[in-house]
């Protein structure tokens, strides 16, 4: 087996997040972006130390698990909803197995209570935020606006019927796309650093229907966006546009950020409601992308935290303070720590909005902030970014020796990597479960309750 060779085989299983296993003789090959049971053609693109990786070229035969038709027109070319041809029940079964296998391996099959997987209340049209890219579907093709082709950083497919978002968002996308098509406006080319159109960022409150529209461009060209604003406001939407922004971004990197924000209409924030609390969300504020599944997630977290009466709770990697505020109603004090200053400002504003006076939010790196905090927590909530807890921050967190730690993981492999450190510090995994916030995709959230054992040193 050599690099560049092409083989055919059947995906036997898929490990988290999307690593399919194909056996060629006695050689295991990892091929991403497939579904268990698919017969595929693939090319070997890595071969080292007895390990082989392949790139999926073609699905030759559908999997027996693919029991429904695609929901949108750009499947399977789009890299977004890989699993939409599987029933939702089968998606949940696969994700649950993937996470359990990771946890069992990390714990060396130590006993813990597994509480299953919670599905999302909405299987489609659940996202309250979406970043669409401008580009073309092939070199020098017409302007497109949507999502990248699977495995491509350049080709963009127009997502006019994307089923991850509310129909209001696809109507807005089509309106913006058609407007710039007629103007023959250029899109930003990442290699040459030339062009105008970069992204369309949409945010929509699931519970309020309030919508923010952000057209993100460079400063290399200038167009009158007043007609676009009027066209957007005239759209027949179920919700209501409360803000339209033109964001100037001349950064060389392909990230959504602002050098200058021009408000074309309304305001730069919207409201969303979770578990009876109201949240003001601005353009770049982090907020769980599936509002209704976030309610399920936070209900589990609140249950895992247990009784916090008269206790001090540390919410580390607190984002806009959603979890902290949910815990505050039954705690003595909650201290949130978050490195993104805008998120901290939003957390403070939301705590005031909800009349919560026992929440305090600190802007800074968890690694450094913990050195300066004089309070000692009784309970710790961890909701780190995808890569997990910083290796230098973990010993500081463990040194508090609290009885309960709730770890929320958006990447189960990071949780599995961190678990042995908790075990060595005298904790055991009491119980865990999954919450699926990302139906049709490879992602899933895991919630773990870690308890300090009496026998630890």
TrEMBL record:
CDD domains: AdoMet_MTases. It comes from the Bacteria. Its EC number is 2.1.1.190. Keywords: Methyltransferase, S-adenosyl-L-methionine, Transferase. SUPFAM superfamilies: Nucleic acid-binding proteins, S-adenosyl-L-methionine-dependent methyltransferases. GO terms for molecular function: methyltransferase activity. InterPro entries: MeTrfase_TrmA_AS, NA-bd_OB-fold, SAM-dependent_MTases_sf, U5_MeTrfase_fam. GO terms for biological process: methylation. S-adenosyl-L-methionine binds at residues 288, 317, 338, 383. Coiled coil: none annotated. The keyword Mitochondrion does not apply. The active site is at residue 410. Belongs to the class I-like SAM-binding methyltransferase superfamily. RNA M5U methyltransferase family. This is 23S rRNA (Uracil(1939)-C(5))-methyltransferase RlmD. It comes from Blautia difficilis.
